[in-house]
Write a structure and sequence with these properties.
- It is a single chain.
- With 236 residues, this protein is an alpha/beta fold.
- It has 2 domains: 7-125, 3-Layer(aba) Sandwich (Rossmann fold), CATH 3.40.50; 138-233, Winged helix-like DNA-binding domain superfamily/Winged helix DNA-binding domain (Arc Repressor Mutant, subunit A).
- 37% of the residues lie in helices and 22% in strands.
- The chain has helices at residues 16-27, 42-49, 65-75, 89-97, 110-125, 164-174, 183-191, 202-213; strands at 7-12, 31-36, 53-57, 80-84, 102-105, 138-141, 144-147, 152-155, 158-160, 181-182, 223-226, 230-233.
- The strands form 3 sheets. It has a 5-stranded parallel beta sheet with strand order 2-1-3-4-5, with helices on both faces.
- Strand 7 and strand 8 form a beta hairpin.
- Residues 126-135 have low confidence and may be disordered.
Length: 236
């Protein structure tokens, strides 16, 4: 990670044994760890601890992970890694569509979780990539404005909320307008060498982006699919 500030991680999970394991492991890797054991008070815990990243369990009593994720996205633009014990990819897809940045299936190796945490935090603090020509803090193409300094998006003057991953994808596309990019190119430019779950979900993120920035996401004019190749951003 690019700064010396201790990063804070909030674990939201009802499994106290897992909380203790992750607290010890992540604490031993220079993270400050706090936790909540139910989703009902999760938003208040986020306000109190103001974490840099959230690890969120899918299955919890009272209020499940998807409900908590919806609440998080109303109030915060914080990176979220979802943990799921369910094998159905549909649940993972729903989590990504609601704004999760990554997911990990239980049981998992804590080292893999650590790698994913570091990758997400690194993407948040990494300056614009050297191999992308346009390094301006604000990029405007038509009526869409992307500001890399404060991670904001405006469409027709209206502010749009994007997840961290969605923002990085759109940034790559807008910095390479009218250029066809393969899925691998988008992944590598958006995440460097650190693509993991994202490589299986890029089409989901593109679909979610279209629903937010296109007038009609079923007939996209900005993000074009180039069949057999990838995607291209077109100014309108």
């Amino acid at each position: 990670m690019s700064d010396n500030k201790t990063k804070k991680i909030l674990i939201i999970d009802d499994d106290i044994k897992l909380i203790e394991l992750l607290s010890e492991y992540l604490g031993g890797n220079q993270f400050e760890v706090s936790y909540a054991q139910d989703g009902l008070n999760a938003i208040e815990d986020i306000k109190n601890h103001l974490p840099d990243l959230i690890i969120l369990d899918y299955m919890m009593p009272g209020k499940d992970g998807l409900e908590v994720l919806r609440d998080i996205r109303v109030h915060h633009d914080l990176p979220v890694i979802m943990l799921t014990a369910k094998g159905d990819d549909t649940d993972k897809i729903v989590g990504l569509e609601l704004g999760a940045d990554d997911y990990l299936s239980k049981p998992f190796n804590p080292r893999e979780l650590l790698a994913r945490i570091k990758a997400i935090l690194r993407r948040q603090t990494t300056p614009p990539l050297d191999n992308i020509q346009n390094k301006d803090l604000a990029i405007q193409l038509g009526d869409l404005i992307l500001n890399t300094a404060n991670h904001t998006i405006e469409v027709n003057g209206a502010s749009i909320d994007l997840s961290t991953t969605e923002f990085k994808i759109l940034e790559v596309l807008m910095k390479n307008p009218n250029r066809v990019l393969s899925r691998d190119q988008i992944m590598n430019l958006a995440q460097g060498k650190d693509f993991m779950a994202f490589d299986r979900s890029i089409d989901i993120h593109i679909s979610k982006l279209r629903s937010k920035i296109e007038a009609d996401h079923s007939l996209p004019k900005r993000i074009k699919t180039i069949w057999g190749t990838g995607y291209m951003f077109v100014e309108i």
